[in-house]
């Protein structure tokens, strides 16, 4: 009682008010899981897998470490979910744009789709290429590119057959085209100049002006 009276007297003298209690918004399990994924995604993009810790994920999410473990089992678990989501997002975006038709239209669709993903989801793209670079023959991003190349190969094979080229070479050209766009996307992730559509136009210019004058049986002219 004495403490309460003293506190009231202090308020009268100093005009101070007791601090309002801190209220925390309770989240559902689904909301908390999404929050942790958002926090982890930003950290993985910034620091990579090895540079990110469960402690930092928990700290930025303002939760205890056991909460992260409860939802994902550890850093590997939350990283796997982040990568799977980004992989599916990129794959869906790329494949949904490849409608076939004229080969040049297909090139424009593919280039614009990848660069749009880089522009809209730069953190996700950074995660994919940081630990699984474009030039690697293994890893998640390589798998995505192979899936996209398979779609391009199917379309190219039809075009090759219609124009008298060897259909068996469609896989080689598909890998070359997809790889060119992907490597350019990785460079543009940091450069961001020129603008997206201009970069796509230059990619199509290089690819199409080469494809439109393909030799049926090319040979090296060195030596």
TrEMBL record:
The keyword Transport does not apply. PROSITE patterns: HTH_TETR_1, HTH_TETR_2. Residues 1-20 are annotated as: Disordered. The keyword Iron does not apply. Keywords: DNA-binding, Transcription, Transcription regulation. Residues 30-90 form the HTH tetR-type domain. Signal peptide: none annotated. SUPFAM superfamilies: Homeodomain-like, Tetracyclin repressor-like, C-terminal domain. Residues 53-72 bind DNA. It comes from the Bacteria. This is TetR family transcriptional regulator. It comes from Amycolatopsis bullii. The lineage of its organism: Bacteria, Bacillati, Actinomycetota, Actinomycetes, Pseudonocardiales.
């Amino acid at each position: 009682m004495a403490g309460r009276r003293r506190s009231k007297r202090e308020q009268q003298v100093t005009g101070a008010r007791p601090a309002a209690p801190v209220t925390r918004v309770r989240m559902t399990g689904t909301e908390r899981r999404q929050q942790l994924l958002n926090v982890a995604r930003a950290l993985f993009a910034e620091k990579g897998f090895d540079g990110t810790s469960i402690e930092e994920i928990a700290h930025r999410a303002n939760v205890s470490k056991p909460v992260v473990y409860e939802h994902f089992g550890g850093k590997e678990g939350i990283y796997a979910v982040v990568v799977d989501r980004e992989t599916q997002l990129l794959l869906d975006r790329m494949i949904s744009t490849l409608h076939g038709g004229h080969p040049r239209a297909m090139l424009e669709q593919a280039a614009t789709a990848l660069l749009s993903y880089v522009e809209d989801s730069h953190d996700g793209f950074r995660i994919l290429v940081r630990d699984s670079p474009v030039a690697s023959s293994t890893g998640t991003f390589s798998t995505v590119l192979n899936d996209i190349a398979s779609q391009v190969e199917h379309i190219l094979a039809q075009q090759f057959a219609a124009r008298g080229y060897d259909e068996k070479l469609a896989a080689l050209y598909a890998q070359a085209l997809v790889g060119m766009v992907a490597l350019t996307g990785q460079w543009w992730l940091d450069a961001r100049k020129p603008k997206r559509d201009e970069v796509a136009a230059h990619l199509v210019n290089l690819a199409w002006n080469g494809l439109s004058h393909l030799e049926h049986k090319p040979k090296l002219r060195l030596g």
